[in-house]
Queue: 3 jobs
Job 1
Amino acid sequence: MLNEIVFDIETQNTFDEVGGYFTDKLKLSVIGVYFFATDEYKAFEQADLPTLFPLFEKSTRLIGFNSISFDLPVLNNYYMGDLRGLPQLDILKEVEKSIGFRLKLDSIAQATLGMGKSGHGLQAVQWWREGKVQAVKDYCLQDVKVTKEIYEFGLKNGYLLYDDRAGERQVIEVDFRVVATPPSAVNLTLGL
């Protein structure tokens, strides 16, 4: 899996509070990360981003779930550039490309892995406000673990699963293989 990184973010506020789907108005609380290179899970806060961004830039690929539309635009609020330009795999985008509609991470995880998420993002916002930072980190890292395991299953088997509205198990064909891209000779990190 080379130097791939699986990630997920949690925010301090919600779309309802900022008046709609405005990722530029959301504030990061925690980012959970899994590094294939070191087989390590880590949670980062906003102050840690200058350490994390260079690791993102040097990764073979960033892997997330709804990361192109949500996670990366929120992280771009703290980055001097556009993280969406880095090599990446957004599992939700691949699911939508395959079946024509979006699914929740939990729906795919339950059908594919027999396990799901440990909660929902609104709980994480509440925990953050209550000062339960470790609870937010634990929740976020569980989402990273689920995303990683879905990725590994899809990479190995070429499909994921979900249960349709009638309760019938359905197959989602996916191709998560790495597409070769030329290495960048430029250090992308700007002073933060």
Job 2
Amino acid sequence: MTEFALGAPVLMLAGLYGVEQANFVLVNMKINQLATHLADNASRIGDTSQLKNRKIYESDINDVIIGAQLQAGKSIDVYNHGRIFISSLEFDSATNKQYIHWQRCRGAKAVTSGYGNEGDKISGMGPKSGEVTADPGDAVIFVEVRYTYQPLIAGSIISNKDIKAIAAFNVRDSRDLTQIYQRNAAKPDPVQDCKVYNGEVKISSSGVVS
């Protein structure tokens, strides 16, 4: 009994440490999967007309953002504890440079993108050792997710709680790259402005996103 009394606290601490570390790895995996799914889904959105380039709408982007919240789940609570950046990386023929044509963001975490903001002329997006670029007349959807890990047991076990994930996909089919459209100009869908820091997406009974 004496040996058990002396050893139990050590075993308990080791067990709690292992559980916290395992949960941290699991959350890391979920955030990386979320970035991949966001980029993949955003690269597919648009009209399905075969007669002209596919238009994309603010409502399409809102759907992708809502889907990310549902995929991450309540336990992650990605928009209250993190932030996502969805960027359209394109080629500017006038300057022969890459630039971020548009960017949409969601999340309460007070961070800015580590790879550029809307309108920036850049060499590419991603780590310097492996930047992605867009071909002329094409676009790459680049997604960055920043998230603050929420401890299960004690915050001191995990020293660095800032989780980062990136993903990129070329757009599917031929997309209208001129702008993001509104389906109804009289009742425009909300724009996920990168200057605004909002948490969880709220959907009213009428289907309006806020």
Job 3
Amino acid sequence: MSPGRHASDDSSFARSAGGAATRGIILIVVAVLVGVVLIATAVDDTNQITAAGPGTTAPPATAAPTDTSPTTAGDPSAPATTAATPATTAAAAPTDTGAATPTTTAGAVFEPRPNSVVSVQVANTTRVGGAAGRMTDTLKAQGYVTLTAVTDTGGVQAITKIHHVGGYLLEAQKMAGLLSLDPEASVFSMPSNPGATISDYAEPNILVLLGSELAN
């Protein structure tokens, strides 16, 4: 009985040992294959990352200048618009300014009114009787609208003065020239209240205050 058991036990042990060895070899082979696959995969991934890295970085950097360069060089509308604007402005400014000024200046011509529409009154400041009446006749002969000759009680004047209301400067200067007086030194604006010293003041366009040099 004992020897048979030993023989049976030895056979089972040998089979078990043989199966374990086979499984160990298979596991080793599988492990080696898995290692090879993993190494190959890692190498492929590394190559892809290395190749993709510069490739991915380079295109964006290249794309930005490439898109900007053609747009600037190939767009003719921008220079054309910029060139047209100054040309229009430069042409319009001088034309409008130069046309208006000469026309207004050339058309402004000032001349004294005709004697027939200018009223005049002579006031005698001297003690020469009838002098104002005689001067009135002289001016009437020149075509003026003459009013009644009067006397100025404000005092004797050595020099005749010609006073005018607003807007009658040229007419007063013309009358001074007719009487051989200085058109600048003998012409004045109308006194503020000539009626204070002149009786029967008629509010003429021109008032002649007759002085001693023309009284006769």
